Structures are given as structure tokens and as C-alpha cells.
Amino acid sequence: MTRRLSTRQLVLGLLTQQSMSGYDIKRFLKSLGWLIDGPSFGSLYPALHALLADDLATVEIISRQDKPPRKIYTITEKGRKALQEWMDRPVAPGVSLKAFVMRLILASNLSPAGLVAHLEQRHAQVAAHHLALEQTAQKMDDRGDLGERLALDYGLTVAAAELAWLDRTLAQLSERPLTAGAT
């Protein structure tokens, strides 16, 4: 069985860090928008309501003077168990950059071995992609389309940078392993 990250799991994972309002969640995800293109309010609030309906989260309504009430969501023990069950499932091969980064956001919910496996899986995926781009570059002559050459060079540069980051991060983790729940 594979796992795909949904708004529901992402929200549960964020709520393991601290209780948050829907606005707080959206603001945090917007700060990473260039990487993950976070969920819209149109998908975030239905996910929060579903978490409440399934007893995976609770909500506290805080009255405020001259402002609408603030709803603060907190993960329940049932929610923690559901998230952990999902995090323990195998990851689908070939996950997108967005799914990879979203899982990094939830890394504190992975076991140390699970985090290393996630990073190693991404490393293998990017290395294969980089190799394919290199082979394409070797076949392309200097007369090729400028846009194609630029896109290929961009892809090679991004893949090489990601491989360097993955190598460095995996080396750091092997030097001082993380404990479960550490960030």
C-alpha cells in the first residue's frame, strides 16, 4: 500500500507541533508556497471540518472584542495515532517535489530510519532524473533550440543542487542520528 500526502495528513502533522487556527495553518503554508503550493482555503477548511467530524482534532472557540471569534484546532490522541499509522505506511515511488517537501515538513513524525529512507528514496529518484538529463544533453547538439538548452541546463543545475543537499543531509544524519520526534 502506498501513501499520498493529503491536506488532512498535512494539517494533522502541523497540529502535532502546536495548536493552530485555520488562518495560522494557511499563513504557514503560504510561506512555503513557492515550494509546495499549499492548500487553498477551499480545501483547508473542509479538511479541518472532516478532522473534527472524525474526532482527530478538537476546536476551541476564543471570543475576541470587535473581531470574529478565533477557532484554535488541536490534534487528539486519536488524531496522533491516525497520523502515525499513515506515516508508517510505505511511500509511493516517484513522489513529486511537492510531496517530498510536504513530507519534510512532517519529518518530526517519522522515525529516524523512516526519515533516512525517505531521503534515500528521493536521492535515488533525483539521481536517475539527473542521469537522464545528462544523457539528453549529450545527444543535443549546439544547434538545438535555445529554450530547450536553457531548460535542460536548469534541470541539470537544480538536480545537482538537490543531490548535493541530500548527500550533505544524509551524511549529517549518519554522524548524529535524530531521535524520533526531533527536528
Keywords:
183 residues, mainly alpha, two-stranded antiparallel sheet, 2 strands, 63% helix, 9% strand
Topology summary:
Blueprint: H1 7-17, H2 22-31, H3 33-36, H4 41-53, E1 57-64, E2 67-75, H5 77-87, H6 97-105, H7 112-139, H8 146-175
Antiparallel strand pairs: 1-2
Helix pairs in contact: 1-4, 1-5, 7-8
- State the helical fraction: 55-70%
Ends distance? 27 Å
Structural category? mainly alpha
Strand arrangement across the biggest beta sheet: 1-2
Which value, in Å, is the CA radius of gyration? Answer: 20 Å
User: Helix and strand string, N-terminal first?
Assistant: HHHHEEHHHH
Number of helices: 8
Given as residue ranges, the uncertain stretches (5+ residues, pLDDT < 50) are none
For the secondary structure, the number of strands is 2
Average pLDDT over all residues: 85
Shape: elongated
Largest sheet: 2 strands, antiparallel
Beta content: 5-15%
Any overview of this molecule?
The protein is mostly helical. Helix content is 63%, strand content 9%. It contains 8 helices and 2 strands. It has helices spanning 7-17, 22-31, 33-36, 41-53, 77-87, 97-105, 112-139, 146-175, and strands at 57-64, 67-75. A two-stranded antiparallel sheet has the order 1-2. Strand 1 and strand 2 form a beta hairpin. The longest helix is centred in the C-terminal third of the chain and has 30 residues, at 146-175. The radius of gyration is 20 Å and the shape is elongated. The mean pLDDT is 85.
Briefly, what is this?
The chain is built from eight helices and two strands, in the order ααααββαααα.
